[in-house]
Amino acid sequence: MTDDISLGPVIAIVGPSGVGKDSLMEALVAAEPRLSLLKRVITRAPEAGGEDYTPVTEAEFAQREAAGEFALHWSAHGLLYGVPAAAVVAQRAAGRGVLVNFSRAMLVDAQDVFGNFVILNVTASPEVLAARLAGRGRESTEEQAKRLAQASKPLPEGLHHVHQIDNSGELSAAVQAALAVIYPDQPERA
Ligand SMILES: Nc1ncnc2c1ncn2[C@@H]1O[C@H](COP(=O)(O)OP(=O)(O)O)[C@@H](O)[C@H]1O
Ligand SMILES: O=P(O)(O)OC[C@H]1O[C@H](OP(=O)(O)OP(=O)(O)O)[C@H](O)[C@@H]1O
């Protein structure tokens, strides 16, 4: 898409199911007006809840893909996910950093596409993940087990700007750690 670092960064939030990616993104946007959150297009039922997404059928997803609407798209958990290019362009052009919940498998492609690209790899112990997924309650027990089996998937090779963010403890601690990475020149926040 562009290598122009005068545009706001695209900030990939990655990590296993239940680690707190969506919670962290929402808290970051609430804490920092220079950040915005990318709303993904997903073939997930509209009533599933959780993150704010654009629900579509598989046919509509295919139409949007064919029309070139997505900067990137992938398949995971039996669903299709798309990152709408126009929304990313608009948010970056306004100078904002754009938070996107990405698949770890897409990071090398995303790094090529977006140029100014930072990865926050969010971590927590397997016990914490299992408890949080159960607490979220969006997926069946069987689906939770499938997601937990994917939890330790490593990041691909060849990524330039990867930062680990521990979300084992309070969410506010992870927010502060993430802000320190995204805006390293800012004094520590209260
Ligand atoms: N630091 C935290 N402490 C306690 N609960 C958390 C924390 N971060 C996230 N959660 C909870 O864990 C569950 C999974 O979080 P979510 O943001 O949906 O994870 P992900 O998007 O990575 O799958 C949610 O119920 C959320 O409220
Ligand atoms: O390749 P992976 O890194 O394992 O990621 C696979 C998918 O899991 C996450 O989706 P989603 O946010 O729908 O699920 P989650 O909340 O359970 O993580 C992530 O955004 C990817 O779409």
TrEMBL record:
Q: Which reaction does it catalyse?
A: alpha-D-ribose 1,5-bisphosphate + ATP = 5-phospho-alpha-D-ribose 1-diphosphate + ADP
Q: Which domain of life is it from?
A: Bacteria
Q: Which GO terms describe its biological process?
A: 5-phosphoribose 1-diphosphate biosynthetic process; organic phosphonate metabolic process
Q: What InterPro entries does this protein's entry cite?
A: GK/Ca_channel_bsu, Guanylate_kin-like_dom, P-loop_NTPase, PhnN
Please give the Gene Ontology molecular function terms for this protein. Answer: ATP binding; ribose 1,5-bisphosphate phosphokinase activity
Ranges for the Guanylate kinase-like domain?
Answer: 8-190
Binding of ATP occurs at G15, P16, S17, G18, V19, G20, K21, D22
Top EC class of this enzyme: transferase
Is Oxidoreductase one of the keywords UniProt gives this record? no
EC number of this enzyme: 2.7.4.23
Pathway entry: Metabolic intermediate biosynthesis; 5-phospho-alpha-D-ribose 1-diphosphate biosynthesis; 5-phospho-alpha-D-ribose 1-diphosphate from D-ribose 5-phosphate (route II): step 3/3
List the GO cellular component terms: cytosol
User: What this chain does, per the record?
Assistant: Catalyzes the phosphorylation of ribose 1,5-bisphosphate to 5-phospho-D-ribosyl alpha-1-diphosphate (PRPP).
Question: What protein name does the entry list?
Answer: Ribose 1,5-bisphosphate phosphokinase PhnN
Report the gene name. Answer: phnN
